[in-house]
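Figure 6 in text form: structure in, sequence out.
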């Protein structure tokens, strides 16, 4: 859902990275957008791994990173980071759950500039420069989640974020794995009946 007044931007990068590092670019973009929103809007922002920003329990921003792969080389020649921010949207359709707007008196141009500035700063400082912020703003750590991978839904507990932005989860059998992509949902807490 992309109504007029929202911020919709794409950033083309030509980094020399492998596919494994692509999740790191998405996490970097999330940190850049979160820093921009906190700075310009004064809103506390949480990051839902790997690509959503939330304010007060509702989604205000989504990020999607795609690779442009060379036909002959099979190597990522460029990455496109798409960022959509609900700036001042007042109403959302019924089928758009948990969405909200930043609701701040900030121009789209100022938000775009702030996101780009923060992203360039992260890229200049290196891949490690964003991870502590990303971890401290995660809304998943310590929570029961489910993830979908290869069409299978699996319950787990989010226990960490690795150095490249991968989500570390503990499965119900006690084993620990790191997710590099996938859809994550926070599981509701079970309440015991008395």
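Output sequence:
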């Amino acid at each position: 859902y992309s109504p007029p007044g929202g911020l919709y931007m794409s950033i083309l990068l030509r980094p020399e990275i492998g596919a494994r590092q692509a999740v790191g670019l998405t996490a970097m973009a999330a940190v850049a957008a979160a820093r921009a929103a906190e700075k310009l809007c004064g809103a506390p922002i949480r990051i839902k791994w790997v690509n959503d920003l939330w304010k007060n329990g509702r989604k205000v921003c989504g990020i999607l990173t795609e690779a442009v792969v060379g036909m002959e080389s099979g190597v990522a020649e460029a990455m496109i980071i798409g960022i959509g921010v609900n700036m001042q949207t007042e109403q959302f359709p019924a089928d758009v759950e948990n969405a909200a707007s930043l609701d701040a008196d900030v121009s789209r141009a100022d938000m775009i500039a702030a996101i780009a500035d923060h992203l360039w700063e992260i890229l200049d400082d290196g891949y490690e420069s964003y991870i502590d912020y990303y971890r401290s703003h995660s809304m998943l750590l310590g929570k029961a989640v489910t993830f979908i991978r290869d069409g299978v839904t699996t319950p787990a507990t989010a226990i960490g974020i690795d150095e490249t932005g991968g989500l570390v989860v503990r499965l119900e059998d006690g084993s620990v794995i790191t997710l590099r992509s996938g859809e994550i949902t926070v599981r509701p807490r079970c309440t015991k009946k008395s």
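Caption detail: Residues 146 and 155 are 4 Å apart (CA to CA).
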